[in-house]
Amino acid sequence: MRQYRFSSLWTIVVAVAVAVLGMAAPASAAAPATVTTVTTGWGHTCAVGGDASLWCWGSNSSGQVGDGTTTARSQPVAIAGSWTTADGGTGHTCAVRTDGSLWCWGNNFRGQLGDGTTTNRTAPVRVGTGTTWAGVSAGDNHTCATRTDGSLWCWGFDRHSQLGQGASVYTSTVPLRVGTATTWAAVTTGFAHTCATRTDRTLWCWGDSSSGQLGVGSLGYRTSPAQVGTAANWAGVTAGYTFTCATRTDGSLWCWGENGYGQLGADVPYQTAPLQVTGSTWASVTVGFDTTCASRTDGSLWCWGHNGQGQLADGTTTHRKTPARVGTATTWTGPLAVGYHGCGVRTDGTLWCWGNNGSGQLGDGTTLRRTTPVQVIFP
Known about the structure:
Elements: H1 8-21, E1 35-40, E2 44-49, E3 54-58, E4 73-79, E5 83-88, E6 92-97, E7 102-106, E8 121-126, E9 133-138, E10 142-147, E11 152-157, E12 171-177, E13 184-189, E14 193-198, E15 203-208, E16 221-227, E17 234-239, E18 243-248, E19 253-257, E20 271-277, E21 282-288, E22 291-296, E23 301-305, E24 320-325, E25 336-338, E26 341-345, E27 351-355, E28 370-375
Antiparallel strand pairs: 1-2, 2-3, 3-4, 5-6, 6-7, 7-8, 9-10, 10-11, 11-12, 13-14, 14-15, 15-16, 17-18, 18-19, 19-20, 21-22, 22-23, 23-24, 25-26, 26-27, 27-28
């Protein structure tokens, strides 16, 4: 990598720009020893290191990498700041800093960045002035986030009531509170629906349910949160394009909604209520577009559904209607993310990616599609 020598004055200017504007950090930023969070968008990837560093790469046409440009990156680029978590939407990214502030960048056509505008941003812009943001989920054209007080907020496109505001909002460029509850634990956003768990381990969904993706037993829309069944042992939930999957505390895994590629883990029509996936030792699950990947308590990784870009990591591009194991490794115990490409963290903190790589989103320095996992090497 080419190195440059800066004058003292220019160094000060760069430091101020990084601190104030959220620009990408200098390319000489140290590579993280471990990865703690990974997220995949349509064609980009972001990861948070154990040292609280944030790195993004891949498609950047709307500025979703956050490095101040619209140039695609085939290797990770460091984003200035100290971060706890990040989530990638179709064409935008949002992340929470260690001081509890929330920042977003990339596509903003529907106000999904929450900065009060519809202007695309190529570098992080702050969402309001709050310092109590706990977690964030970036969908297609909307975003939702939880705060440390247990409140839930959503913004962006609301054509299908995915913001949970009733039928009164079409688009919001700033965060809107979802009801008055202070018991929201985590949230996930799909194409036009949203689901969230509460501290009592109940599960709630709202927005578009034209394929049954809300899991409430019927098609149509819900303009405000509707409880999914009566179970109170939901551990985690993840929303895809038009389907949803979730784990329970007993190790069971459940999916519902559209099933055109077998993403529900069974050869069945669409489902309007949760359908159990075979097995009872599931540890975590992630979905994206029409693909599902999940890890088991023994550290094995399994994927199913759409595989046109090799995103099932099984060495083929064959769609799977039931879980197919990814290799023989038993070290897949960290975070997972999947879309048209997938990524996963292993027990040693290394990051591995696979699938579509047309924009360099696998971070291996190439644009070659990979049907099995390749390790991401940070510069």
